[in-house]
Amino acid sequence: MTNAHKKLGAWGESVAATHLEAHGYTIVARNWRCPVGEIDLVAQKGALLAFVEVKTRRGGNPEDQITPRKAQKLLETAQTYLLENNLDDIDFSIDVIAVALDRSGKLLRCDHYPNAVTAW
Fold first, then answer.
1. Which CATH number do you get for residue 9?
2. Of the four, 43, 44, 73, 86, which is 20 to 30 A from 53 by CA?
């Protein structure tokens, strides 16, 4: 991944975190990693814990980047987080936030898809 892609991704994650906070979520963790994978944002709203994958793109639909393989990896990573933090009985969702920009870098939209990934 190039430095430009990393910067774009980090910017998109900041936009997504701001969006979540504006909608009543508290950010619990950013870029949580384990041997299975990474979760961009972990956020809580009431009793719900949301594992959030952020996709940022210039042109096109960022949400189209969630493949079945990526969805499975997100599910496995979320399960690892829950196990490592002894959160057996918590309600959780795996969400996607799509941050779309035009070719010049202007923000077009920030769409939140709650519970976008479910068990296969």
1. 3.40.1350.10
2. 86
